[in-house]
Write a structure and sequence with these properties.
By secondary structure, the protein is mainly α. The chain has ten helices and two strands, in the order αααβααααβααα.
Length: 215
């Protein structure tokens, strides 16, 4: 019997332990992976977004519901198309002065109207300045998007892409990407893949060609 054989016979417990040890190591190896996965999820979903996005508020708090539900206004009275088919976007405050001025107030007890008049309207009911509105849906310069093609020709409602803002009583903050400066809205529901999926869904896959959106 060799020395090697004697070692195997004289120390069977050690041999068995050597056989079992890899099994213990393999089962214990799952815990670091699971812990790393939990940490990655927490960082990616909880910690990273607040660091990546800054919150910016609109120049003043606008109550859409008060204008649509109480005053009975339609969306296109302020958000309309020009004669050439381009979209006006957020209106200038000249439109607001048609209903809100120091000489013709809608509600003297409304602190929002008072704050609006104090900042943007002179005592002679002249517009002092236009607010620097923040765009939730600003696209890159290389992208061409036609609202009239989607709304009037495609039959889409504004709510399908932008949500039902007509029922909101305040303007939500803009979550702006610190690196790209684009809104979080663009990342979450207005990416190129979202547009392509929508074109395909509505039977217009030919509109996925590059030159359609990239001029």
């Amino acid at each position: 019997m060799t020395d090697h054989d004697e070692a195997q016979v004289s120390a069977p417990g050690e041999v068995k332990a050597a056989v079992r040890s890899p099994k213990k190591a393999s089962s214990g190896g799952w815990w670091p992976f699971f812990a790393g996965l939990v940490i990655a999820v927490v960082v990616g979903w909880v910690i990273w977004p607040p660091l990546l996005y800054s919150q910016k508020m609109q120049p003043f708090n606008f109550n859409h519901a008060a204008h649509t539900e109480l005053a009975g206004m339609e969306c296109d009275e302020c958000h309309a198309f020009r004669d050439d088919g381009s979209f006006t976007g957020a209106p200038g405050l000249e439109r607001c002065l048609e209903c809100h001025s120091w000489g013709d107030r809608q509600n003297e007890d409304n602190p929002r109207e008072t704050a609006f008049l104090e900042e943007f309207v002179s005592e002679d009911d002249e517009l002092l300045k236009n607010p620097p509105w923040l765009g939730y849906s600003r696209q890159p310069d290389c992208v061409y998007f036609s609202h009239i093609a989607h709304v009037e020709k495609g039959g889409f409602s504004c709510e399908e892409c932008h949500g039902d803002h007509a029922k909101t009583a305040s303007t939500r903050p803009l979550q702006q990407n610190r690196l790209t400066t684009y809104s979080r809205d663009v990342f979450e529901k207005m990416k190129m893949t979202d547009c392509s999926a929508c074109h395909t869904k509505h039977g217009k896959p030919e509109n996925n060609a590059c030159f359609v959106c990239h001029k």
